[in-house]
Amino acid sequence: MFGPFKATSSLSGGLLWKIPFRLSSPQKRRQRKRLRLVDNVVATVDRTLKKYDMKPASSLERWKEEMPTEAEMRARDKYSMFDRKEKSYRKGVHSEFVFHKTGPRLEVG
């Protein structure tokens, strides 16, 4: 095609859906903020249950025992997740769609 609407390689299929290899600083900041928000929710629920002398749920106790807080997590666990199809079995959290995300806190291997 000639003229201003000439098809180029970037227009015909490439750059729109390519995902960068590394997370940018703002992406990492947002991910840390999300993890801290989860930690705050768990702490708030635990505090409220103690305030009203209620027995905490077993799932809450298990979460507090097994899951590290954002400050305790390694960078590898904060910014990547397990994927059995990947060569190194890890995939960046930014390459997963939002509605498919699961908690990145579980260490698998």
Walk me through what this model shows:
The mean pLDDT is 80. Strands 1-2 form a two-stranded antiparallel sheet. The protein is 38% helix and 6% strand. The protein is mainly alpha-helical and 109 residues long. The longest helix has 27 residues, at 25-51.
Summarize the structure.
This protein has 109 residues and is mainly alpha-helical.
What keywords describe this structure?
109 residues; 6% strand
* Count of DSSP H/I helices: 3
Span between termini: 52 Å
Binned, the helix content reads: 25-40%
The ordered H/E elements are HHHEE
Shape: elongated
Low-confidence stretches: none
Largest sheet entry:
2 strands, antiparallel
Strand order of the largest sheet: 1-2
> Which radius of gyration do the C-alpha atoms yield?
20 Å
- The proportion of residues in beta strands is 5-15%
Overall mean pLDDT score?
80
Number of strands: 2
Q: Structural class from helices and strands?
A: mainly alpha
Helices and strands in order:
Elements: H1 25-51, H2 58-66, H3 75-79, E1 80-82, E2 90-92
Antiparallel strand pairs: 1-2
